[in-house]
Amino acid sequence: MKPTYNGKVRDVYDLRDKLILHSTDRISAFDVVFREEIKNKGKILNNVSIAWFGYFKNYPNHIIETNFEKFPPPYQANKEFQDSAVLVKKCQRIDFECIVRGYLYGSAYKEYLKTGKVSGITLGNGLKEAEILPEPIFTPSTKNDTGHDENITEEEMKNQVGNEIFEKIKTLSLEIYSKAQKKLKEIGILLCDTKLEFGIYQDEIILIDELLTPDSSRYWNEKTYQKGKTPESFDKQILRNYLEEIKWSKTPPPPPLPTTIINEISEKYHYLQDKLLQCLLEK
Questions:
Q1: Torsions phi, psi of 279, nearest 5?
Q2: Which domain holds residue 11?
Q3: What's the rounded Cα separation, in Å, for the pair 236 and 266?
Q4: How far is CA 243 from CA 27, 118, 229, 248, 250, in A?
C-alpha cells in the first residue's frame, strides 16, 4: 500500500484504471517541500475540493468515490485516507496548468512591472499591485513534475494542444473562475486567481486534480482589501510572503518554519474551510 508516486503535497496510488489521490499535511512553496507539516491540512484541502466539485456538478470531473470505506480492497481499510483521499478516474492528463487571474498579483504583477504584459497579454498603464483587472485573464503554464512550471502564452499552449481543446479549456476555466468569484462575494471573500487542471476521459474533457483549494487559489478578505497593498489572505500566500521577507533563495534546502507561521497558516485554512463549506453546502 505504498504510493505509486509522491507529489509535493499529495500521494498517488495507481489502481490501473483508477487512482487514489491522498492529500497529505505537507506544504510546499516555490516548488520546494518543507520539513514541517500543517496539521489537518490534507483533510481541509480534500474537503474544500470535494465541496467545489459538488457545487460545479454540471461540469464533468474525475471523482468516483469520496468515502474511503468504499475504496477497493485493501485501501478501504486504511484509516489514513479518512476525509483526506478520493478515488478518481484515471485519464489522460493535459499537461498544462490553467490559471485564471482576476487581480494583478504575485508573479503576474512582477512580470507586468517588467514588460507591461502578463503571459503575452498587454495590460493598461499604471496598474497597482493587487488591482482588479477589467476582466479575468487566462494565463496558462506548463505542468512539470520536476522543476519549476513555466508561464507561456495562449498561442504557445494552442500550438501544443490544438485550437479545439485550447478554446474548450479556456472557456471552462474562465466560466468556473467567474462563477466561483460571484459565489464567494456572498461571504465577503475575493478570489484573486486559481489554477485548474483538465484531463481527457473517454474523449471528453473533464476537471481533474484539486479544485479551488487554498493551495491552488488565492483567497482574500474583502473587508480589508485595498489595491496597492498586500491583501489579507486565507491561503498559501502567507508562506510565500514570509519567504520573500526573509529573502530565501527559493532553492533547497528549505528554511525551518517558525511556529507562528505554521499556526497562522493552520488558522487561516481552518477559517476558510468553515466559511466555504457553510456557503457551498447550504440548501
A1: -75, -45
A2: 5-89
A3: 10
A4: 13, 23, 18, 6, 8
